[in-house]
Amino acid sequence: MRRLAVIGAAIVAIDRITKIVVRGAMIYGESVKIFDFFRITYVENTGAAWGFFAGGQYSNYVFLVVNLAAIAYLIFNYGKFAVDKYSSLAWALVTAGALGNIGDRIFVGAVVDFFDVRIFGYNFPVFNIADSSLTLGGFLLAFSLIKNATVLRRTEQQR
C-alpha cells in the first residue's frame, strides 16, 4: 500500500508540475512541434474526456462533483478493487489521475491538457499526465479482471 501511495503521489506531483510549466511558458492555444507526430499544445477542457459536454455554464462544477464522488468511492472501496498486484496498481493510477484533474478543476477552472499526438492521419484529443494515468489504470484493471476471471474459471473446472 505504501508503494502505491508513493506512485500515486509522484503521478499527481508530475502532473501538477507539468501543467504549471505549460501554463507559465505558453499562451493558450499555442502549439510547439517536438516531432512530426507529437506537439505540446496548451488547451483547457471544462468537459469530460475528449471535451465531451464542455462549454456548459456549469460543466466544470458538475465534473468536479462527479470526480470527487468517484475518488471517495475508490478510496472507501480499495479492498474490493485491490485483489491482486495489477488491480492494486490500477487503483493507484486511476485515483492519481482523477486527483490530478480535480486539482485543475479547483485551481484553474478547467483541466489543462498539452500532449498533442497525431499518428496515421488521426489527431488524438489533447491530453495530460493525469489522463494517461487514468487510461493506463483502466487498461490494467481490465487486464486484472480478465486474468482473475480466467483463474477463477480454471479453479472451478478443476473441482
How does the SSE layout of this entry go?
Elements: H1 2-25, E1 31-35, E2 38-45, H2 59-76, H3 78-81, H4 85-107, E3 111-119, E4 122-123, H5 129-158
Antiparallel strand pairs: 1-2, 2-3, 3-4
Q: Largest beta sheet: what is the strand line-up? A: 1-2-3-4
Query: Terminal Cα separation, in Å?
Result: 33 Å
The biggest sheet amounts to:
4 strands, antiparallel
**What is the percentage of strand-forming residues?**
15-25%
Number of domains: 1
Summing up helix and strand content along with how strands pair, one would put the structural category as alpha+beta
Report the average pLDDT across residues: 85
> What is the alpha-carbon Rg in Å?
18 Å
Helical coverage, percent range: 55-70%
Number of distinct beta strands:
4
N-to-C SSE string, H for helix and E for strand: HEEHHHEEH
Inertia-based shape? globular
Please sum up the structure shown:
This protein has helices spanning 2-25, 59-76, 78-81, 85-107, 129-158, and strands at residues 31-35, 38-45, 111-119, 122-123. It is of the alpha+beta class and 159 residues long. It has a 4-stranded antiparallel sheet with strand order 1-2-3-4.
Report on the structure:
Strands 1-2-3-4 form a four-stranded antiparallel beta sheet. It is globular, with a radius of gyration of 18 Å. With 159 residues, it is α+β, with helices and mostly antiparallel strands. The protein starts with a helix and ends with a helix. It has one domain. It is 62% helix and 15% strand. 27% of the residues are buried.
